[in-house]
Design goal:
By secondary structure, this protein is mainly alpha-helical. Helices cover 46% and strands 4% of the residues. The protein has a domain of 154 residues: MOB kinase activator (Butyryl-CoA Dehydrogenase, subunit A, domain 3, Up-down Bundle), CATH 1.20.140.30. A two-stranded antiparallel sheet has the order 1-2. Strands 3-4 form a two-stranded antiparallel sheet. A hairpin with a 2-residue loop joins strand 1 and strand 2. Helix 4 runs antiparallel to helix 7 and helix 5 crosses helix 6. It starts with a helix and ends in a 27-residue tail after the last helix. It binds zinc ion. The site of zinc ion has 6 residues, from helix 6. It comes from Neomonachus schauinslandi (Hawaiian monk seal). Belongs to the MOB1/phocein family.
C-alpha cells in the first residue's frame, strides 16, 4: 500500500536519487548539526607569518584527505548501478583525461579519477614542495583551484546522492562541518568559481551564512555545543 500513501521510494537502481524529490540535507534539524563550534571564518584567514602558497598547500592537502575519508564512509553505496553518472541536481560532470578528452563515467569512477589525480598532485614534490627552499610552480594557484573544484564535486555528490546513508551513519555533522570549512576557505582565497558552486547555493546559504550554526546538533564525535556563534557577516 505504500504507493497509495505516497511513500514509495526511488528504487535502488532508479535514475533519480531520492534527494531530487526533496533535498533532505536542507532540513533544519540536519543543517544544524556540526562537530565543532569553531568559527571557521577566522580560522581560514592567512596567518601573518605564513607564506600564502604554504597555507594553500597545507589546507588543500588536508581537505583532500578529509573529503576522501568522508566519501569512504559511503563508498560502498556509491556503485556503478546506484550512481550511473556523476550527477548533482541537473548538472552532470564528465571527467577529462590528460589529453582533454571527455570520458563518460559512473560516479564512483569519477571520484576515483578525482582522488587519484589529486593524490598524484599533492605528493608531487614539483607541485607541492615540502622541502625547504623548494619553489612552488607558477601554475600552483590554478592547480589548487582545479583540486578545489574536484573536491567540491565529490562533496556535492555526497549530499545529493548519499545524504541518507550519511545520516544513517550519523556522520552528517562531520559532513556539514567539512563543507563549511572548505567553502569558507575557498571563498577566502577565491578558489571556486560561483558558476561551479551554484548547484549547491541553497545549502551553502544555510550552512555558511551564520544562521545554521550551533544549535546543539550533537551528532558525531565532538557533539557540537549549543549556542549562537560569532560567525558574523555573510559572504
Ligand atoms: Zn554515488
Amino acid at each position: 500500500m505504500d504507493w497509495l500513501m505516497g511513500k514509495s521510494k526511488a528504487k535502488p537502481n532508479g535514475k533519480k536519487p531520492a534527494a531530487e524529490e526533496k533535498k533532505m540535507y536542507l532540513e533544519p534539524e540536519y543543517t544544524k548539526s556540526r562537530i565543532t563550534d569553531v568559527g571557521f571564518k577566522e580560522l581560514v584567514v592567512l596567518p601573518r607569518e605564513i607564506d600564502l602558497n604554504e597555507w594553500l598547500a597545507s589546507n588543500t592537502t588536508t581537505f583532500f584527505h578529509h573529503v576522501n575519508l568522508q566519501y569512504s564512509t559511503i563508498s560502498e553505496f556509491c556503485t556503478g548501478e546506484a550512481c550511473q553518472t556523476m550527477a548533482v541536481c541537473n548538472t552532470q560532470y564528465y571527467w577529462y583525461d590528460e589529453r582533454g578528452k571527455k570520458v563518460k563515467c559512473t560516479a564512483p569512477q569519477y571520484v576515483d579519477f578525482v582522488m587519484s589525480s589529486v593524490q598524484k598532485l599533492v605528493t608531487d614534490e614539483d607541485v607541492f614542495p615540502t622541502k625547504y627552499g623548494r619553489e612552488f610552480p607558477s601554475s600552483f594557484e590554478s592547480l589548487v583551484k582545479k583540486i578545489c573544484k574536484y573536491l567540491f564535486h565529490v562533496l556535492a555528490h555526497i549530499y545529493w546522492s548519499h545524504f541518507k546513508e550519511t545520516l544513517a551513519l550519523e556522520l552528517h555533522g562531520h559532513l556539514n562541518t567539512l563543507y563549511v570549512h572548505f567553502i569558507l576557505f575557498a571563498r577566502e582565497f577565491n578558489l571556486l568559481d560561483s558558476k561551479d558552486t551554484a548547484v549547491m547555493d541553497d545549502l551553502t546559504e544555510v550552512l555558511c551564512s551564520g544562521g545554521g550554526r550551533g544549535g546543539g546538533g550533537g551528532e558525531g564525535a565532538g557533539g557540537g555545543g549549543a549556542g549562537a556563534q560569532n560567525h558574523g557577516k555573510e559572504r
